Amino acid sequence: MNFDKIFENNKGWIAQKLENNPAYFDDLSAGQAPEVLYIGCSDSRVTAEEMMGAKPGEVFVHRNIANMIPNSDLNVQSVINYAVQHLKVNHIVVCGHYECGGIRSAMAQSDLGILNPWLRNIRDVYRLHKDELNGIEDANERYKKFTEINVYEQCINAMKTAEVQKAYAERGLKVHGWIFDIHNGNIVDLKIDIDERMKDIQSIYKLV
Length: 208
Known about the structure:
208 residues, alpha/beta, Beta-carbonic Anhydrase, Chain A, 2 domains, five-stranded mixed β-sheet, 10 helices, globular
C-alpha cells in the first residue's frame, strides 16, 4: 500500500459509496446494531468483515495479538461489556488463525521484552494442555493444534464474565470458536457447545 495515496483512496471510496447509495453516510451515522462481537487477531492478513462478507454496522470488532481474552485486560473486558450489555449482540466469535505470530512467539522460549506479559497468557494455555500438545511429534501440527486450543480457552474466558453469563441466561447468547485457515480462506468452526461448557465452568465461575 502506498501510504501517500491513503487520502486519495478515501475520496475514491466515498465517491463509490455515494454513487451506489446517496444516503450511505446518513444511514451509517444513524447508529449501529451489530448482531456479532468478533474478537480476533491483529494480524494484518486477517480482516473480520471481509472474510465474513459483513457490511459496516453488522459486526463489532476487537483485535489484539493472538485473539486473547485475559481477565486482567480492561480493553477486551470493556469491549465485551459494551457489546453484550449495551449493543445487545447475540453472538460472540473468537477467531484465531493458522500461522499466527503470537502463538508462534509463545511457543518460542525467548525473552521478547514488553511482549512477555502478554505472551505469558498464551503460554498459560500451553501449560494447561501441555500433555496433549507435547504428544504431537510434528511441530507444525502441534502449532496448529495450539492455535485451536487457544481459541477454545479464550471462549471459556468469555463465558467466565458476568455479562456473558447473564446474556446467555436471559436471551441465549452464543459463543463461537473459529479458525481462519490462512492457506485457503476457509473459516473452520470448532463447534464449541456453549451449553455443555457453561455447565462445566459454572460450578467454579458462576456469577449470575
